[in-house]
Amino acid sequence: MITIYDRADMAYVLARDLDPRLIDLLRRRFAALVTPYGDLTDWTEFIVVEPGDTEADVERELGFSPLVNPIDGSRFGAPTFQPFWDHLISAAGYFEQPPRGGPGC
């Protein structure tokens, strides 16, 4: 798992030998953080889940599992599961799910 908290982490990740599609996607997301209205670079966290990372790893990092509905406890894949996230897209072979906040939000 790659966790990016600030500018230093961004620079480190962009210098790593990672999939060029991921690097391009991250560059675009990082660039979008700087706007005429302000700079959100140090207020935004990125987590890249890699092969081998488990749901427990993701939950430990995020404080919740995106695979479990926090209201009724239903799990992704169950017939009763209703996604609780606001947005999920596929970009450059990666899924992006920007949560609107941490636990309790």
TrEMBL record:
Superkingdom of this protein's organism: Bacteria
Protein name (database record): Uncharacterized protein
